[in-house]
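User: Let's play a game. I give you a shape written as tokens, and you guess the letters that built it. Ready? Here's round one.
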């Protein structure tokens, strides 16, 4: 089983996170930011990743440290669970609709961290979550997972729908990219012989 357990404690957050890439989409999420909890639940279910997150953060300040630090931990967990990434499909993309919103997400599990983010969010807040933290989460996740990601909004007017489409698209793309290709299950999908170093 490709799993990881991450603990991270700073003056701003105390996080316990567990991930199973080969799960069934079971989750237990408590970040302290309600809307973000909902997004991580969607991520778990649509990716079929078993995910547990417990965070005690300085949400009396705002959600920034909590959401960014969970991105760091989730990225580290993906990197750890993937190991040398032997046998994975590596690439995946999806164009995902959520009512009027339409989001494209393309993934390369390359060992090289890069985020191209082209998403316009009409509202500044959804519940207790500052919507600009979507990008901060994705920056932290891609940097620590070693993943190249292109996230592009093609249509949308409702901020909730746009962010939800982003999380679902990320989950579905990652689900396909980390899946084991039975034809090449003993191979590293790179001519250089390594991905995650």
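Assistant: Ready! My guess for every position:
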């Amino acid at each position: 089983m490709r799993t990881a357990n991450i603990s991270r404690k700073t003056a701003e957050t105390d996080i316990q996170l567990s991930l199973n890439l080969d799960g069934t989409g079971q989750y237990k999420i408590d970040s302290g930011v309600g809307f973000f909890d909902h997004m991580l639940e969607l991520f778990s279910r649509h990716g079929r990743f078993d995910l547990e997150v417990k965070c005690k953060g300085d949400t009396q300040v705002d959600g920034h440290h909590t959401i960014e630090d969970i991105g760091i931990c989730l990225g580290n967990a993906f990197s750890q669970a993937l190991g040398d990434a032997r046998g994975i499909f590596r690439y995946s993309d999806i164009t995902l609709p959520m009512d009027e919103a339409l989001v494209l997400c393309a993934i390369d599990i390359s060992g090289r961290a890069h985020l191209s983010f082209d998403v316009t969010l009409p509202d500044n807040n959804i519940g207790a979550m500052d919507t600009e933290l979507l990008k901060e989460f994705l920056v932290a996740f891609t940097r620590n997972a070693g993943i190249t990601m292109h996230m592009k909004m093609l249509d949308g007017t409702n901020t909730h729908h746009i962010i939800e489409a982003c999380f679902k698209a990320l989950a579905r793309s990652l689900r396909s990219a980390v899946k084991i290709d039975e034809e090449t299950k003993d191979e590293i999908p790179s001519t250089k012989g390594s991905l995650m170093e």
